[in-house]
């Protein structure tokens, strides 16, 4: 899988994510993270590899052929539909839900500890921050 960054001028620095390339068999988990970018609701797709490194993808990929192929390959529900499950107040950096693998569906990606609490405080200023302790029971 290869993700090519969108120009920061096009999507803004709040949603800018760097390009990356990862082998599909290196993907251990996939999660979604609803956030506010200024006043706009947005969502990031989080790819977690076998080394527990997180690769974020901004919502600008929604409904693209590449995302549809990705969803099909991993047997995911539509990420756009999953996003609809969140309320406006859920976009303050407090929810990161696993959507793959299916046996861990809708469990928390991060432990609810002091790191997550700190991230919630500044998520409005840095929506693409994924500071926290990965919940290794859920990403296994």
What does the model show?
- The chain is of the alpha+beta class and 140 residues long.
- Helix content is 23%, strand content 24%.
- The chain has five helices and six strands, in the order βαββββααβαα.
- It has helices at 8-11, 65-74, 79-83, 114-122, 136-139, and strands spanning 2-3, 20-21, 27-37, 40-49, 54-57, 97-100.
- The strands form two sheets. The protein has a four-stranded antiparallel sheet with strand order 5-4-3-6. Strands 1-2 form a two-stranded antiparallel sheet.
- Strand 4 and strand 5 (54-57) form a beta hairpin.
- The longest helix has 10 residues, at 65-74.
- The model has no long low-confidence stretch (mean pLDDT 90).
Envelope shape: globular
Give the rounded overall mean pLDDT: 90
Put simply, the count of helices is 5
Helix vs. strand class: alpha+beta
First CA to last CA: what distance? 22 Å
Low-confidence stretches: none
Number of DSSP-assigned strands: 6
């Amino acid at each position: 899988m290869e993700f090519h960054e969108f120009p920061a001028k096009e999507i803004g620095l709040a949603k800018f994510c760097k390009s990356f390339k990862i082998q599909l068999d290196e993907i251990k988990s996939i999660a979604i993270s609803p956030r506010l970018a200024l006043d706009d609701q947005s969502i990031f797709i989080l790819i977690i590899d076998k080394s527990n490194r997180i690769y974020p993808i901004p919502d600008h990929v929604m409904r693209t052929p590449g995302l549809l192929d990705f969803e099909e390959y991993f047997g995911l529900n539509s990420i756009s539909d999953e996003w609809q499950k969140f309320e406006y107040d859920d976009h303050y950096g407090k929810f990161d839900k696993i959507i793959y693998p299916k046996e861990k569906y809708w469990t928390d990606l991060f432990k609810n500890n002091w790191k997550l609490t700190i991230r919630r405080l500044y998520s409005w200023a840095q929506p693409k921050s994924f500071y926290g302790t990965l919940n290794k029971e859920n990403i296994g």
